[in-house]
Fold:
Amino acid sequence: MALCKTEYTFSAGMKKPVRFLFFSDLHDCNNEQLIETVESVRPDAVLVGGDFIQNAQKREKGLSFLRSSAGLVPTFCSI
Structure:
């Protein structure tokens, strides 16, 4: 599955820019590709908008991604 990347820039009156990387609907994405994206984008935090653990069999794959991402940058998710 290919990742689709869209960038948005907006001003929120902050003193310095903050970069978030948002993932959603990951389902069967390649964890290695996701982590490579985190490393290349170098965000301040990763946000995962749910729908990334479809069933019990794939739960460990999703949790593995969260652990790997959290080892790099703060990572937050909605299940």
Notes: The helical segments are 31-41, 56-70. The longest strand covers residues 20-23.
